[in-house]
Amino acid sequence: MNVRQCLSVIAILAAFASPLQAAEGSGYGRVKPSADGTGIVYLGRETAAVMGHEGADWLERPERVAEERPDLLLAALALKPGMQVADIGAGTGYYSWRMAERVGPGGCVLAVDVQPEMLAMLRTEMKKRRADNVVPVLGTTTDPRLPAGSIDVVLMVDVYHEFDHPREMLDAMVRALKPGGRVVFVEYRAEDASVPIKPLHKMSEAQVRREAAAAGLQWKETAETLPWQHIVIFTKGR
After folding, report:
1. In whole angstroms, what is the distance from residue 71 CA to residue 52 CA?
2. pLDDT exceeding 70 applies to what percent of the chain?
3. Where are the alpha helices (DSSP H) in 22-151?
4. Homologous superfamily of 3-14+53-235 in CATH?
5. pLDDT digits (tens, 9 = 90+) for 43-85
6. Strands 218-223 and 229-235
7. Measured distance CA(160)–CA(205) in Å, rounded
8. Which H or E run contains 138?
9. For residues 95-127, b (16+ Cβ closer than 10 Å) or e, as one string?
10. In sequence order, what are the residues at sequence separation of 6 or more whose Cβ sits closer than 8 angstroms to the Cβ of residue 167?
């Protein structure tokens, strides 16, 4: 699937897809919302409130290179030319254009966000960087709107903990993966009290693995090469 084909698929989805009505099934509960929380509990974890587009400057902060080491994350992803990659919760496209360089003109990056304002900023950034193989996609809180069976790698950086329907989102991502495709969670380490991030915006490796397993994903490996974050990688069974 080249960039033109990616655009065609997304155009079809935009024309015919309608937002799914989420069914809160097994594993969900509710509590009184805590600070920075939604009150929605999934498999024992309260989901965090979403950072709005007003906080977009934080995504592009100069310190992020040292704090997150995107070079090390990209090395762990092992992207290859021609791959089709999804950047879920892409925001301003901080990782989208970096991945686009690695998959090359024969591949593409579907940059998904639920906030139109974020996608507007992403388009500006991609134009500035001439990242023509990045395709913005307006998702919903239950569906990233990815073509079925088309994606090699799904990447989520500091975003999964904010999903208010994590099970539905993961199920949709699994459907979008090719056989053997990977889902990569990058989350601030809850096990490390020295990581200067609010508690609901961190996740333990054990919790990530528990929630991914509920969606049928198979754990492959966990890399602890980043300063503050886990890289937890799962695969879709054939």
Report:
1. 26
2. 87
3. 56-59, 64-68, 70-77, 96-103, 116-129
4. Vaccinia Virus protein VP39 (3.40.50.150)
5. 999 999 987 666 667 677 889 899 999 999 999 999 999 999 9
6. antiparallel
7. 13
8. strand 134-138
9. bbbbbbebbeeebbbbbbbbbeebbebbeebbe
10. 25, 26, 27, 28, 42, 211, 214, 215
Q: What is the DSSP string of 157-211?
A: ES-GGG-SSHHHHHHHHHHHEEEEEEEEEEEEETT-TTS-S-GGGEE-HHHHHHH
Cα 120 from chain centre: 18
Residues 138/146, Cβ–Cβ less than 8 Å: no
What digits encode the pLDDT tens for the residues 77-98?
Answer: 999 999 999 999 999 999 999 9
The token pair at 234 is: 């799962």
Q: Are 186 and 229 in contact (CB under 8 A)?
A: yes
